[in-house]
């Protein structure tokens, strides 16, 4: 077993999984403390690295795409202090960090763990029930329903709709964006058959975030919901099958170059007329190009 203990946290590796425990130091972020201990199976890892600095170094884990709902929901936008897959290492423990890195790398090689994307989540996501107050509202999730309640800072037009309740069957996606510069962040839920392009400030399915201390906690709500949505790999496969049905093969088994070009033109017309979204058009076009 390999272990490294730091003020920032403790990482333990037993050959099958890594146990990541956040430290109790005041500099450890609220998100990591709230998320608590993570158990990462070896099969979820794509790699590990250790970077030395003058005063401190950093251990970093790289997970396989699609393995963790938290990373998917946040799109890799968690800032360094909040990223649970990084550990600050004091200079007098560089030797331990290097040994730890070698142990994990050797296990990845011996088990022949691939680094390509996975087709199902290998981590469960944050525990529920979960409730976070930040920005212009409170988001609560019990594993089946999301409840959005507004505060006195909410835009009147948005608050007028009252408390919002969404079920998992209502949703197609969830995303979290942090505040950046003068641009506010948000937690947004995409509802079936009700797409919206309204800014989060006015969107009743979004919580607007202003860059305060509790904003990153909304990422935990996003991750808990994401863990219960269809995995993106499965959703993408379903979309391709549906779009291939919309653009069937030419009659008589004809699948020659000219016929495929005609189908591409037809798709372009459907896209321009608004029948197909940008994403649907891209997926259908890729399916046809694979046959050319």
Number of distinct helices:
8
Structural class: alpha+beta
Q: Which of globular, elongated, flat, extended, rod-shaped describes the shape?
A: globular
According to DSSP, the number of beta strands is 14
Relative strand content: 25-35%
Averaged pLDDT: 89
The biggest beta sheet reads: 4 strands, antiparallel
Name its key features.
alpha+beta; 292 residues; 4-stranded antiparallel beta sheet; single chain; 14 strands; 29% helix
Describe, in plain words, how this protein is organized in 3D:
This protein is an alpha+beta fold and 292 residues long. The chain contains eight helices and 14 strands. A four-stranded antiparallel β-sheet has the order 1-2-3-4. Strands 8-9-10-11 form a four-stranded antiparallel β-sheet, with helices on one face. The protein has a three-stranded antiparallel β-sheet with strand order 5-6-7, with helices on one face.
Helix/strand layout:
Elements lengths: L1 E5 L2 E5 L3 E6 L7 H6 L2 E4 L3 E7 L4 E8 L5 H6 L11 E5 L3 H17 L19 E5 L2 E5 L3 E6 L5 H4 L4 E4 L3 E7 L7 E7 L14 E4 L8 H9 L5 H15 L10 H16 L5 H12 L3
Briefly, what is this?
Helix content is 29%, strand content 27%. With 292 residues, the protein is an alpha+beta fold.
